[in-house]
Amino acid sequence: MGQLLDLWEYIQSVVGKGSLNYQGDILSIAFHFLLAVIVMFIGRWLARKIRIVLRHALVQAELSPSLINLFVTVVYYSIILLVVVFALAVAGVPIDSIIFIISVILIVLAIALQDSLGNLAAAVIFLLFQPFKVGDMVEAAGVFGTVREIQMFRTLFLSWENTAVSVPNMAILNGNITNYSQEGVVRLDMKFTVSYSDNLRQAKQLLEGIITSHDHVLADPAPIVGVDELGDNGVSFVFRPFVKAEDMWQTRYDLTEQVKLAFDEAGITIPFPQRDVHLSRSDA
Q1: pLDDT digit string (tens) for 220-270?
Q2: Comparing 147 with 68, which gets the higher pLDDT?
Q3: Domains of the chain
Q4: Of 34, 117, 230, 232, whose CB has the highest number of CB atoms within 10 Å?
């Protein structure tokens, strides 16, 4: 018993004199410890109840699932932190000592987890300013696919190869973000080249007929077909239909196939790169 009392006096000298007003009665120590445990249990129960109620309220407010998860998680652990502080205070630890210890812990965690905190900050930016949201078709950090979930530290994509790709949020934030779904309509930039020997007007009329007759090509904004370049190998046309974002890949495939078939039927040649080589002969 004497060793326990000596240990307690040492703890008191570290956290502050008179913190528990200890006067030799071990029951006082047990009582304060029991109160702290009760506070922890009640606080944890209360934090869980608040988390459930808050999640329900945010769902009713029709916020995005990712924003709901982030907000609920932050609130829950903030309450847990306050409960721990209150429990330590009930146990008799001075508030100044509690603040100092927590500050040291937070500084150490901030240094050790600076990359994770950066990813968390990026997630907050994504959810507040919404450069993209779940379900959008996005190109970012070298990944092209559909956003499946914005997590606290990473964003999940479903790529066009039907593979799940997880990217750190900071990698997305520090690069360019191309959102194909934000406006709902995208323009396909395609180019077709015909030979100089082919009928230019006929080729243009074929292209205009193909682009205006496709079901997925929008009438407004109007599609564009025009002569773009007189190149080394032929005359190049720009071919720019406007389509809904979800239709852009299938429309590109369809139009490319239709142009090739129409050119073959009309006898229009798609030239390949070629060079004229002139050989000169000199007499020795």
Answers
A1: 999 999 999 998 889 999 999 999 988 999 999 999 999 999 999 999 998
A2: 147
A3: 2-112 (1.10.287), 131-179 (2.30.30.60), 186-266 (3.30.70.100)
A4: 117
Round to the nearest angstrom and report the end-to-end CA distance of the chain: 117
Give the separation between CA 20 and CA 33, rounded to whole angstroms.
11
pLDDT digits (tens, 9 = 90+) for 81-133: 888 888 888 877 777 777 787 888 778 877 777 888 888 888 888 888 889 98
Which residues have C-beta within 8 Å of that of residue 171, sequence separation ≥ 6? 141
| Residue pLDDT, tens place only, 6-27 | 444 544 554 444 444 444 457 7
* C-alpha span between 276 and 278 (Å, rounded): 7
Whether this prediction's pTM lies above 0.90 is answered by no
Q: Which one, of 124, 129, 115, lies nearest residue 73 by Cα?
A: 124
* CA distance linking residue 182 with residue 39, whole number of Å: 48
Three-state DSSP state, 63: coil
CB atoms within 10 A of CB 48: 13
Long-range contacts at 87-92 (CB < 8 A, ≥ 24 apart): 87/36, 87/37, 87/39, 87/40, 87/43, 88/36, 90/32, 90/35, 90/36, 90/39, 91/20, 91/32, 91/33, 91/35, 91/36, 92/19, 92/20, 92/21, 92/32
The angle formed by the CA atoms of residues 168, 174 and 177, to the nearest 5 degrees, is 90
